Amino acid sequence: MAGFGKGRLLGAAAVGLGALGAGELIAAARGGSVLDGVGRLLTDTVPVPVVEAAVERAGEHDKETTRLGVAAGAVLASAGLAQLPDRLRGPAIAAFGAGAAATALRGTNRSAMSALGGIAAAGILRAGLRRQPTGVGGGLLWAGAGAGMLAAAESLVRRDDRLHRERARRVGSMGSGVPTPEDGFGTEPGLSPLITQAGKFYVADVNSRAPRIDPEQWRLAIRGLVAHPLRLSLRDLAEQAVEFDAVMVCVHNRVGSGRAGNARWFGVPLTSLLDHTLPESGATRLVTRAVDGYTISLPLEPLRSGEWPGYLVIGMNGEPLPPEHGFPARVFVPGIYGQYSGAKWLAELELTDDSHVDYWWRRGWPSAPLWVRPQARIDVASTGATGSGKCTIAGVSWAPPHGVSAVEIRIDETDWLPVELGAELAPAAWRRWRTVVDLPPGEHTVQARVTSRSGEVQDGAVRPPFPLGPGGYHSVTVTV
Ligand SMILES: Nc1nc2c(c(=O)[nH]1)N[C@H]1C(S)=C(S)[C@@H](COP(=O)(O)O)O[C@H]1N2
Ligand SMILES: [Mo]
Q: Which residues form the Oxidoreductase molybdopterin-binding domain (predicted)?
């Protein structure tokens, strides 16, 4: 360690930042990213408790957080590599570069340039550490150049994403054009709208960015244990699609959080698609496979019979699916948590036997699909401006696929009181609720619970999302 002062460490970190920036810029020339590839590798390999903790902490910003963490890790690693004795440093950096190149190929919109970016970063790191900057000026130069190149790379990738988003929208309307639905509640400040706009709808997936799929080239293959494989274009699918309203819920949606959205979807019922393929007798599972190989599989029988009404979805709220929500197509079975109900960015549907293993099973999640537990969320609990004890309490509730039959609230853990329900859009959709209560001065807790039409009452036992889905009541505090 002799001779490695703070200055040299910082210098090595600066060289690392410069090398990383150059690598990212090269990868970005073809829309890829070395950081994204490493991020995906981390997502795929870190133990589930770490994933759960990260999901909890990072919230909506999981993708940015991962990217930043990986960048910081790469810079730290460069400083670490600089500490190695000369004879080890070369081979270590070469191994680092090879690893970066290989992982870059796991990134979402990877190309050969992504791998080249990883190799170039290692080459620059090697050269830079040989003649390592010792002065402040040299270090600043490396760091500044690195930061500038990272910013340039990011803006290149964002431009590609923007162009893709416009191309996806140009596919045209995806819906019946019927006016937006109403439940009689109108708009209430703070209360979630009946339909969640695409831009407000939660995004959850293992990818760092949405894959950019060309709708003209894209075909959905339905293959495997079938007598009659199919290849369908987006246009073929649009001709058979119907509209349906349903809430989609992430298994990570703890009570009160926002990983749930209600949309008017446009899709082809899986029953009819599956019938056309003439499944063979050995076919027991439907594997939904994304363009990156990610799979979610479902038992075939209930989908074929329509007992579980699944759809091949191509539209959301009258528009094509936005890239982050799976453009051009995804599978969705209302009532099943997102993690179990079908892949976004579909490449194919494969009918297969029970030997198939899904992404999340390998990571310790149960293999049987998890059904969404009924949940009520409190969006509004406000006393208004009058200073009186009149308090408006309102929110959304869901119990797909059966539907919501009642929502109740209780104040300070006393008796459950029924509330008014908005009109039901569809049993699988979410349903809004509201009430006005008179509260004495002081601090109060308000809790809500929902009962499904199948008779299931929301369970108050608090449970984490892993491994069976979250439980508990949403609880908020109001002060009068
Ligand atoms: N290809 C792909 N599909 C996926 C996922 C994924 O990581 N990759 N995540 C699933 C999970 S966990 C959820 S909750 C939903 C989220 O869909 P959304 O991002 O449109 O809300 O997509 C599902 N489909
Ligand atoms: Mo999810």
A: 210-360
SS3 at position 14: helix
Domain 375-479 is in which class?
mainly beta
Q: Is residue 202 within 6 Å of ligand 1 at its C-beta?
A: yes
Verify whether ligand 1 is closer than 6 Å to residue 62 (CB atom). no
pLDDT tens digits, 396-447: 999 999 999 999 999 999 999 999 999 999 999 999 999 999 999 999 999 9
Looking at every residue in the chain, the average pLDDT score rounds to 95
Nearest to 312 by CA among 276, 351, 273: 273
Q: Locate the ligand 1 atom nearest the alpha carbon of residue 205 and give its number.
A: 7
Token duo for residue 44: 């795929």
Domain ranges of the chain: 6-168, 198-362, 375-479
Q: Tens digits of per-residue pLDDT, 201-243?
A: 999 999 999 999 999 999 999 999 999 999 999 999 999 999 9
**Can you tell me the distance from the alpha carbon of 121 to that of 103, in angstroms, rounded to the nearest whole number?**
13
Atom 10 in ligand 1: residue holding the nearest Cα = 339
Give me the pLDDT at residue 387, please. 67
What's the gap in Å between 205 CA and the centre of ligand 2?
7
Smallest Cα–Cα separation from 297: which of 228, 355, 220, 233?
Answer: 355
Query: What's domain 198-362's superfamily in CATH?
Result: Oxidoreductase, molybdopterin-binding domain (3.90.420.10)
Q: Rounded to the nearest whole angstrom, what is the distance from the C-alpha of residue 251 to the centroid of ligand 1?
A: 10
- Neighbour tally for 204: CB within 10 Å: 17
- 358-392 confidence digits (pLDDT tens): 999 999 999 999 999 999 999 999 987 666 789 99
What is the Cβ-side half-sphere exposure of residue 136, based on CA atoms within 13 angstroms? 0
